[in-house]
């Protein structure tokens, strides 16, 4: 059969299946997965910091980061003489969160070893996750501030958020808002652009404080008061 034959077709070198396999291969290492989980806090880390988290040498961490960058899982930001690494996109963060959902067993004894602060409130890349985030999502639904499928704010919700000072309109290619399955609570918290806006608002207004080097966030006394006042969330 010749290549001119209409039924002849050469195999695609870069098929979707091949790209999926390459992505899986790039992530198929415990140390690389530790690095990626650390980057789920949404911030940029140095190779040295990531080597400490993964308990490997800085040179080994650099090798792993090069592999992750080649697969477009991690990106590098240069600032002066320093290089910082972060997740390539929110899609990678969503993939990691989905993997956590699949691998986490609610009844596993290992759950008791997870810090309570991490279960209560943490970052899921650029939005809030954990018990507090799930309760916030449920509040938005029950008060009809968020559509029942979590796809968009209602008119009342937009008024509520604008009154608080949370940005609800912006030119972005990502989803405005969407339900994100919480791996520890096994139900939804709010993701998308709106989820990121809420996290930014909470931090900028002193309702939460980040724990440097970790995904946990602390609900401040002011945050406890304001969350109860505006969203009926008692902590």
UniProtKB/TrEMBL annotation:
<dbReference type="InterPro" id="IPR036388">
    <property type="entry name" value="WH-like_DNA-bd_sf"/>
</dbReference>
<dbReference type="InterPro" id="IPR001845">
    <property type="entry name" value="HTH_ArsR_DNA-bd_dom"/>
</dbReference>
<dbReference type="InterPro" id="IPR011991">
    <property type="entry name" value="ArsR-like_HTH"/>
</dbReference>
<dbReference type="InterPro" id="IPR052543">
    <property type="entry name" value="HTH_Metal-responsive_Reg"/>
</dbReference>
<dbReference type="InterPro" id="IPR036390">
    <property type="entry name" value="WH_DNA-bd_sf"/>
</dbReference>
<dbReference type="Pfam" id="PF01022">
    <property type="entry name" value="HTH_5"/>
</dbReference>
<protein>
    <submittedName>
        <fullName>Transcriptional regulator</fullName>
    </submittedName>
</protein>
<feature type="domain" description="HTH arsR-type">
    <location>
        <begin position="13"/>
        <end position="107"/>
    </location>
</feature>
